[in-house]
Each structure stands twice: as C-alpha cells, then as structure tokens.
Amino acid sequence: MNAALPTPAAAALFDRIKATLAGEQRQRQPGTWSPVARYLDPSRHLSELAALRRLPQAVADAATLQAVGDWRACSVHGVPVLLTRGADDRLRAFINVCRHRGAALVPEGASGQGRERFVCPYHSWTYGSHGACVGRPHDGDFPHAPRDRTGLVELPCAQRFGLVWVVATATPGFDWAAYFGPLGDEIEELGFDAAARVQRERHFTQASNWKLVLDGNLESYHFAYAHRETIAHLFHDNLVVHDQVGDHQRIVLPKRSFAELAEPPARLADFARTLNIIYFLFPSTLLLWEGDHINAIALSPADGASTRVDGWLVAPQRYLSVRSDGHWQRNFDMFWQAIDEDLALAASMQRGLTSGANQALCFGENEFACAAFHDAVQRMLD
Ligand code: FES
Ligand SMILES: [Fe+2]
C-alpha cells in the first residue's frame, strides 16, 4: 500500500495512462499537412525570428550567476545578451550592445565574477551592472544624448528550474508567472526549484530549421524505428498522453515499466522510472523529465536552415548528494545519443525540402502534437 493517498493529479494521470495502455483512450487528432514553405521561405523566417524574440527562452545555467558581480554574455535568437548579478543581488539581462555606436560590450561566451562595470572597448562608454551609463570620455560632446537616456536596454529575465530565462525584446512588466503557468508549478513540484543545479551542458549548431527539430521531438511514432538501438525498448510504441496548456504542451511517455505500478503513486514525482514527461514550453524550449533529472534543450535559429542548440542536464537538490558524477554522465550521454539520432534525421529532412518530392510533410493522426505546435507558431505570427 502507498504510505500516502495519491494527489488528485497523480491519481488522474495513473487512470489516464491505464486507459491508454488498455486501448480505451488512445489520443488521436485528424491528420494534417505541413507545407515545406514553412521551413524554407526566407520572409517567413524573418517573421518567425521577430516573433521568437518576443517570447521566453532558457539561456544559461543559473548557478553561474548566483553571486553579486557574476556576469555572462550569451545570445538568444541572434540577439547578444549580457546577464549580470547587481550589487542589489538582482539578476538582470541586457542587450549586449553599446548605446553609443553599437559595439558589443563583452564577447559572446565570455563570463566572470566580481564585476561592477562594463567598459565598451570602442570609446569607453561605461555601464554599471544595473545597466546605467555611469561615465564616458568627453561627456560634453553629447548634449543631445544625455546619460540617463543611454543606459543599456534591459530585457525580461527570470530564474526557473536551475536555468536563466530571457525574452530577447524589451518588454516592461513581462508576466513570467502567466508564461510558465501551471506547467511551471508542476515542474517545480518535481523538485526543480531555485536549488536545482545544472550538472552537464552542451552547445552546438544543428543543420536544420528549428521547427524540424521540434517536429522530431513531439511524437513517439518514430521511437521503434529511429531509436531501435537506443531507447525504443523502454517505451510503448506510438503512444502518448498529451495535454495542451495554452501554447505549451505536456507529453507523457509511459514506459514498459509502468505495468509494475499496481496503484497510483502518491505524487507525480513518484512516477519516476515508469514514465518520462516532455514539457514543451512554447516556442523553443523542451524540458524532458526523466525522474531524477531534466534534460533541457533550447533552440535559437541561426538562419532558416540552421539552429543553435543549447542543452543542460538539471538535477534537483535532493539528488545531488546521492547520485554519482558517473550517473549524470551516463544519463546525459544516453539522452544525447537518442537526440543525435533525431537531429541527423532532421538534417536529412532539411536537405530534402527543396527536392520537389513533397509540397507538404505529412502528419498522421498520431502526430497531432506536431500539428498543434505549428498552430501555435501561426498564432505567434498573427
Ligand atoms: S561604440 Fe561603445 S563607446 Fe563607442
Ligand atoms: Fe526521438
């Protein structure tokens, strides 16, 4: 018997999975077509980029920005970003672009500690870690550009699930609680609160449109074939338990080991080892919950045919002292082995887009989450 009664959420999920496995509640939606122009049209790509820049994306390991004076330069959707922890202990994000003539203050990828000032390498305009322009040579030559109007452009910034999140367009009063919504609360309940820590990370460029990467991660139809040698044996074939939450999606992937559960576990976290959950936080961050850790993937289109991929393995505080370094490495390797299989296929799809074989790619009734994603992209563009 369970020590505690299952929460309503745990009990409901247990029942849904049981019914799905019994064939009583198989989730399907009408099949659709995904025009290849979606992935190829340069003007559509520019519209998507502008829209992506108005929505949040995971950008960095939060633990590297915990102390006053910590800083890091990264980029998201092609916008250079400077992250700082100010003397007031607040984490801020700015566009890493000088307000004089637009040089980068610090090179992308650079990071450090104990810094209060950022001096532009071009003409030495100087900014505080809170963004204000605090000094510049020959100040009297700029009566038309007063210092209080030439501070760095601040971006919305938040810390969730061990990661730093940024919106790449200045949006005063951005509502983070509304963005993460109930899925954010659920992920936090799984242990990914402010004390969760990144254990591994990986950054590289993928040779395909960003949407092909997401198409490949929102269905389980391919598991039995594309992942035959890696993870296919763990999961039920062609089966998901799916929820649309605003533009976000939650995709539960029951494992074969789910059969061992005779009754609902007490909490969602206790489903660990019997299922994985993909939290797709629209538009471009995937968090895959795998029990004692999350593997996060954030996508930034470099151009229409290539995408920067940022990946982090994050673990809750409670597991840090009881799991070995080798455990995280094994899980990280296993995850990326499967994702690399997906990415190789996405790259092959990219190469075939202009071949003339398809005017549109085909989504079956079982690939409805891909269609739901494209519907959300369309809403984002509208
Ligand atoms: S561009 Fe930065 S000081 Fe001139
Ligand atoms: Fe896959």
Give the termini separation.
51 Å
What's the architecture of the largest domain in CATH terms? Alpha-Beta Complex
The rounded Rg comes to: 22 Å
How many strands, what sense, and barrel or not for the largest sheet? 7 strands, antiparallel
The CATH superfamily title of the largest domain: Naphthalene 1,2-dioxygenase Alpha Subunit, Chain A, domain 1
Give helix % range. 25-40%
Number of helices: 9
Elements, N to C (H/E): HEHHEEEEEEEEEEEHEHHEEEEEEHHEH
What is the CATH topology assignment of the largest domain?
Answer: Naphthalene 1,2-dioxygenase Alpha Subunit, Chain A, domain 1
Distinct ligands, ions and cofactors found in the model: FE2/S2 (inorganic) cluster, fe (ii) ion
Strand content: 25-35%
Average pLDDT confidence is: 96
Structural class: alpha+beta
Total number of β-strand segments?
20
Number of domains: 2
